Amino acid sequence: MTRVDARTVRSLHVVDDPLEEVRSSLLRLAERFDPAAAGGLTATFVIDVAGRGPTTITVQDARCFVSPGAAPAPDARFATEPATWLDLVAGRVDGIAAFLAGRLRIEGDLNLAARFETLFRPAPGATRVLRTRHTTVRGLEIESIVAGSGIPVLLLHGLGASKVSFLPTLDGLGGDRFEVHALDLPGFGRSSKPIPGGRRYTMAWMADTVHGYLIRNGIRSAHIVGNSMGGRIATELGLRHPGSVRSVIGLGSAVAFDEYRRIAPLLRVTRPQYLAVAPLRARRSWIEAGLRQLFHDPTRLPAANITAAANDVLLSLRDPGYRLAFATCARNLGLEKGHGRNSYWERLAACGVPTYWIFGQHDRLVQHRYAERVRTSLPAAKVELWDDCGHVPQFEHPERVNDRITSWLERIEAGR
Questions:
Q1: Minimal CA–CA distance to 260: which of 185, 347, 367?
Q2: What DSSP character marks residue 61?
Q3: Model confidence at 280, in pLDDT bands (50, 70, 90)?
Q4: How far is 332 from 76, CA to CA, in rounded Å?
Q5: Of 231, 227, 189, which Cα lies nearest the Cα of 207?
Q6: CA 94, chain centre distance (Å)
Q7: H/E stretch holding 303
Q8: Is the distance from CB of 284 to CB of 316 less than 8 angstroms?
Q9: Model confidence at 183: pLDDT above 60
Q10: pLDDT at residue 244 greater than cutoff 90
Q11: What's the CA gap between 167 and 164, in Å, rounded?
Q12: What is the DSSP letter of 121?
């Protein structure tokens, strides 16, 4: 069956009585539940299908319960039309594609929402099967979503984000050519959040943790795609473990920033990240405004998706472990040594794996002038500066990013 993606997704199913079929499909969810996929998960989901009303799905003790009505405080809530819901349960489209196309609206924990369909056995003939994976690396549990089969590709999110920031790339690449792993880095998403100390939350420690993920999953080598801090970690992985990296693709990749050189001495002698333990009050309007600043043209995204992302950030900020991880990673990025012996730019010049860099002309976090600096340090690298892009090209220009990454991967593989 031809795969349906977010660009072409549309209603594919017509029935005589869709609401009756919706009711039946909701009741059958308990029969399709996969206890092994749930593990020790305890979560409550509300599914609100237009014309049908809400239904609550409770997962607890490796069991699934379906009940009418809406739980008062679900972990995630889905809202959609009958035709879309029937396409979802029949496997004609997956939840990621439906969400990106604006056919599925989500509130609450986006990571749990992305995991929802992986809790059930796929329907016969499903266009694509998503899997949630939990990998233990040095005592930490790393959660990832895996799609597709073939050459391994890892997606590493930026500071403060999670694997859901790579949903368009997971959707675009996860087919029959690439096995795509979208990770929650330690401290973020649904992965473990250890207390800072020692090397924790340095870029080297993050890179070594990702390398451990590769080893634990039997992946000898992979292409590594990173956005912002994830791009910095991808580069560090290529420098520290080049034999495990087929190539590095950086999207708005963090570098050693000249802007922080003046405050680096202060960061070295203080530990301001521990202020993050204190409760933080933030408004959704502030978060939404901040998210829009990541884009050159935020209207390219459905407003409902920005609201969903803002709600997810607010939920994350309630967790002191997340706040500590965020602040510690930010401090360590600010401490990056940009000049002198063993500095970032000196080490980058010695990078031996193929690299592809995309910078945005309107990126407010990673200034576009770093594109030229990367060209100077790595003359063999492929470097592009997009004049219509901000900090997260995978969301602002998902089709272009997917096409460029696919072409790059095919080129690298052809030369291996």
A1: 367
A2: T
A3: low
A4: 33
A5: 231
A6: 16
A7: helix 303-317
A8: no
A9: yes
A10: yes
A11: 5
A12: P
